[in-house]
Amino acid sequence: xxxxxxxxxxxxxxxxxxxxxxxxxxxxxxxxxxxxxxxxxxxxxxxxxxxxxxxxxxxxxxxxxxxxxxxxxxxxxxxxxxxxxxxxxxxxxxxxxxxxxxxxxxxxxxxxxxxxxxxxxxxxxxxxxxxxxxxxxxxxxxxxxxxxxxxxxxxxxxxxxxxxxxxxxxxxxxxxxxxxxxx
Length: 183
Prior knowledge:
Number of strands: 12
Radius of gyration: 17 Å
Strand content: 35-45%
Structural class: mainly beta
Largest sheet: 12 strands, mixed
Order of helices and strands: HEEEEEEEEEEEEH
Helix content: 10-25%
Shape: elongated
């Protein structure tokens, strides 16, 4: 488990989700206590663990949930927030046909998308609210809500784990709190 407290590994994991042209400004290890990701996707079909573009496809709603604690990396760039699991995780997925009138909120699928990758990267402008509360032993609890209804309950630990693998944790944590607090 201590391998997750490695800044190089964190940069590598977050790097998979950072859009081209963006650069990681700060990243830390944190704990997600609850994740609820919502999305509406159009012109696609659902197959096993992915959405595939299809011009004759339908509009699909996705509810992706996890209500237990798990390790995540949180990173910010100039324009995006990235939340990625430190290890492979299981989620509850509910997929359904979108209700009428959802066309305005849908994202068109242009390439194959794994369900596991949905909900990892958000433009900072998509954050509707962000609240912080003091947690146990110097941690900070962060409650994020996105404009599309997705939400995250996160704990940002005071320390970056054992062994010194995340030497910039305190500095990066404060940068993330400052950036998200200004939204």
